[in-house]
Amino acid sequence: MRKLIRRPEIGAVAAFLVTYLFFVVMTSGAGFVSADGTAGWLNLAAELGIVAVPVGLLMISGEFDLSIGSTVGMASMILALGTRYFGLPDWSMILLALVAGGGVGLANGLAVVRTGLPSFIVTLAANFIVIGGTMGVSRLIANVTSSSVAVSDPVKWLFAARWDQANIAILWWAAVALVGWWVLSKSPFGSWIYATGGNATAARGAGVPVDRVKIRLFISTGVAAAFVGVIQAVQWNSGNATYGMGYVFQAPIVVVIGGVLLTGGYGTVVGVVFGTALFGVISTGIFYTGWNTDWVQLFLGALLGVAVFANTQIRRLALQGR
Amino acid sequence: MSEPLIELQNVSKHFGPTKALTGVSLAVHPGRILCLLGDNGAGKSTLIKVLSGYHPPSAGQILWEGRETRFSEPREARKLGIATVHQDVGTIPLMSVGRNFFLGAEPVRGRWPFRRFDSGHANRVALEQIRAFGISRVEDGEQLVGTMSGGERQVLAIGRAMYFGARLLILDEPTSALGVKEASFVLKMMTQARAAGAAIVFITHNARHAMSVGDDFAVLIHGEIAARFSRGEKSREEVLNLMAGGDEMAELEEHLEGIH
Ligand SMILES: Nc1ncnc2c1ncn2[C@@H]1O[C@H](COP(=O)(O)OP(=O)(O)O)[C@@H](O)[C@H]1O
Ligand SMILES: [Mg+2]
Q1: Whose CA is nearest to atom 1 of ligand 1?
Q2: Residue A25 and residue A21: Cα distance in Å, rounded?
Q3: Is B117 within 8 Å of A202 when comparing Cβ atoms?
Q4: Cis previous bond, B113, omega within 30
Q5: CA atoms within 13 A of residue A63's CA, in its CB half-sphere
Q6: Cα(A25)–Cα(A288) distance, rounded to whole angstroms?
Q7: pLDDT tens digits for range A147-200
Q8: Is the CB of B40 under 6 A from ligand 1?
Q9: CB–CB of B199/B17 below 8 Å?
Q10: CB environment B84-99: b (16+ within 10 A), e (fewer)
Q11: Could you tell me if the CB of B18 is within 6 A of ligand 1?
């Protein structure tokens, strides 16, 4: 039991359960717990969750990525302009979008390890560069900053299939979470991620290639963001340079709520998944209560404050006795 | 005496205008403990960083088993069997004992893509190794290293280096943050490593600790070797005098009386 209390995800799991029950009671009869209501918050959490898992691993390694938002928009525009304006095959444009996302991640990673500048600033700059670049290039090519897409049925199914209200993105989220969990808690690379964030000098001394670990994680956040860009473009049948801007801070917020230390070195994928689910529940739960959805922001802000505080406490407990 | 395992010849290291090391020559032999003594800022840490591949020397050369060698990163030095245990950065506090022990050399089981860290094996071996050196308070390999005492962590780090067959063990102030009992634990462990044939560089500014296990001694002052001698050639007072550069001897003696 004492061991359980020290797990980094414990706060997020507890907060999720309490919040969920709170909304169950507050919205009784309004359909929050129905299949459609459940699909609603899962849909919302899923797309954010696909990015939040790799962002969580990156933050455990001690780095930030605030460029994910504009990468979502960029990927959606690549798919839209490529298929609609140039009439290129959808599969190759999806591949190009993912490679471009990986490219943004690679550039972020190289810039961070080469310059030693804080990734917070480097990727914030990258966020503006990517969205500005996407808009500029889109205007040059087609004089638009959003465009509809033209994709085949298999692509539509794979990225936007729907069963009643539930999107296929939920399954993608589950798959990404499973892979993230495996990498972090089962593979040797997971030890390297924790060590890189926990003590980079010691990790380097032990033979861990810390720069490569970071670069790989930056690439994974870029690819994941591009993947969400593709999902959104197919789902809404359009690309837009401003897609994903909400994720810039939502992703790190749910990661911290999920129990990842801001300083790196501690956290779990299970925690990040519950942090993301919590975000989904709050965002849709408020809607079912009939209250003004402006309260979502307040709720999240308070939760973030509590989470940061709780994480330091859990860390202190974890380092205490046995 | 046997051939040196590693030898520095006229090594200098400058950081811009700061001359951290100037013309340092020394040799470390298998089965012997070389104590590197010196005040704060004397260049001890810089010297071990040169030995373990963190810094290339600005001038001079490094010989490994008589052959000239250059390390472009710590990983290369590690491959040769050079293991460095830093004073406080040797382990990752929020990681388990098993994962810390095998960091950078993780045992795996299963086939790709299901190849995974073998935590059972890692935890078992890590516990066995630290038990062999008398650490019995740790019972679970999943326990976070941050919950262990400073001495236990040193033992874990040195035990790990020895398990992976370190031929040169570099210990930066391993005893200075420890209590008397834990320090003697670590000193005993060093003599065990020496008996197993490892060459050891022991950095300290505690003359008592140095005199109790050292075979060879080098005193570093302002980045230069000020004195070099072997066991029994100098008394503790002489050593302290050398380390302090001859000053403030009375104060040191007083301090020494306090320790007795
Ligand atoms: N990376 C570095 N950059 C610049 N100066 C350094 C660096 N490392 C050490 N120095 C300088 O070199 C000198 C020797 O330092 P150090 O080797 O840490 O001494 P010691 O370990 O004996 O206390 C000091 O003046 C220190 O400020
Ligand atoms: Mg030092």
Answers
A1: B15
A2: 6
A3: no
A4: yes
A5: 36
A6: 11
A7: 999 999 999 999 999 999 999 999 999 999 999 999 999 999 999 999 999 999
A8: yes
A9: no
A10: bbbbebbbbbbbbbbb
A11: yes
* Ligand 1 pocket member B241 (CB < 6 A): no
Q: Is the Cβ pair B74, A319 closer than 8 Å?
A: no
* B218 DSSP β-pair partners: B36, B228
Residues B95, B99: Cα–Cα separation, whole Å: 6
Please give the C-alpha separations between residue A153 and each of A91, A171, B175, in angstroms, as whole numbers.
12, 18, 68
In order of A7, A160, B193, B252, the CA distances from A209 in angstroms are 27, 38, 28, 44
Strand locations in chain A (E): 146-148, 162-163, 166-167, 238-240
Query: Would you say the pTM of this structure is higher than 0.90?
Result: no
Q: Whose CA is nearest to atom 8 of ligand 1?
A: B46
CA A267 to CA A315: how far, in whole Å?
10
ipTM reported for the complex, 2 dp: 0.85
- Helix H or strand E segment including B218: strand B216-221
Closest CA to A278 of A59, A7, A42: A42
Q: Is B144 left (phi over 0), alpha (psi -120 to 50) or beta?
A: beta
Residue tagged 């999107």 (tokens): A167
Please check whether residue A260 is in contact with residue A271, taking contact to mean a CB–CB distance below 8 angstroms: yes
**A89 Rama sector, left if φ>0, alpha if ψ -120 to 50, beta otherwise:** beta
Beta-carbon contacts of A191 under 8 Å, excluding residues fewer than 6 positions away, are: B95, B99, B102, B103, B106, B117
Q: Which of B13, B22, B46, B51 to mutate to test the pocket of ligand 1 (most atoms within 8 A of CB)?
A: B46
Which of the four CATH numbers 1.20.950, 3.30.390, 1.10.1060, 1.10.3470 does domain A2-320 have?
A: 1.10.3470
Rg, Å, chain A Cα set: 20
Residue type, B44: K
Question: Cα–Cα distance between B174 and B90 in angstroms, integer?
Answer: 10
The Cβ-side half-sphere exposure at B142, using a 13 Å CA radius, reads 8
- Which is it for strands B33-38 and B199-204: parallel, antiparallel or unpaired? parallel
Over the stretch B83-139, which tens digit does the pLDDT of each residue have?
A: 988 776 578 888 999 999 999 889 999 988 889 999 999 999 999 998 888 888 888
3-state class (DSSP) for residue B200: strand
Integer CA distances (angstroms), B18 to B13, B21, B41, B43, in order: 9, 9, 11, 11
Listed by start position, the domains of chain A span: 2-320
